[in-house]
Amino acid sequence: FVVAHPTLRAIALCAIFWNIAFFALVGLFAPLATQHLGLDAPAVGRSWSAYGAGLIAGALAAPTITARFSLGALLLFGPAVSVAAGIIIALTTRETPELILHCAFFLIGFGPMLWLVTQTSLRQTVTPSDMMGRVGATIQVAIYGVRPLGALLAGIAGSHVGLACAALIPLIFFSLSFISMLFLSRSAVAQASPVAL
Fold first, then answer.
1. How deeply is 191 buried, as exposed, middle or buried, from its count of CB atoms within 10 A (0-12, 13-18, 19+)?
2. Buried b (16+ CB within 10 A) or exposed e, 148-160
3. Over the stretch 79-131, which tens digit does the pLDDT of each residue have?
4. Contacts with 27 (C-beta within 8 Å, 6 or more apart), sequence order
5. How many CB atoms lie within 10 A of CB 102?
């Protein structure tokens, strides 16, 4: 049912690619930050704190933002800012101010939190009530199932091509998540009725 439904398929693919990207970043960031960027452990912690702050800010802002922007824009926003953050992280050097890195992590929390709120409401709207549990479980199993793959890809790449090149893995998969949402759901989103979020 998920694979056959254009909106659910787009949501699932976006979430799968995003989680591969995020867990590649989780696996890479500490060695990337300390060995390649010359940051210390507190700076690594501050980066992850910025991610947490983005999550909280996104959750708090969701009611206001979802009332003002279209469904399509909100579904694209989270993956789009993840791509922007991936670019920032991939291009970061020892000379880059730490605050810019923190901004990237904040975006990775803020945008995807808005996407999560939006897609959950849309998913529940387009899913028949008798399929709700199975659809939710299918997407959750897919998301959690690919997380080790992201970490594994990052570990292999970091070991064989170096940390700087391996930092492109999150960017590549964040980009695939954006493309999934952009192309697979554009007609479905356009036809969807407004969702109460």
1. exposed
2. eebbebbeebbee
3. 999 999 999 999 998 998 999 999 999 999 999 999 999 998 888 889 999 99
4. 150, 151, 154, 155, 158
5. 19
CB atoms within 10 A of CB 69: 13
State pTM to two decimals: 0.89
Strands (E), the chain: none
What is the rounded CA–CA span in Å between residue 81 and residue 78? 5
Nearest to 91 by CA among 173, 170, 153: 170
Contact predicate 158/28, CB 8 Å: yes
Q: Which of 75, 26, 58, 51 is nearest to 179 (CA)?
A: 75
| Residue 197 and residue 62 in contact, taking contact as beta carbons nearer than 8 Å | yes
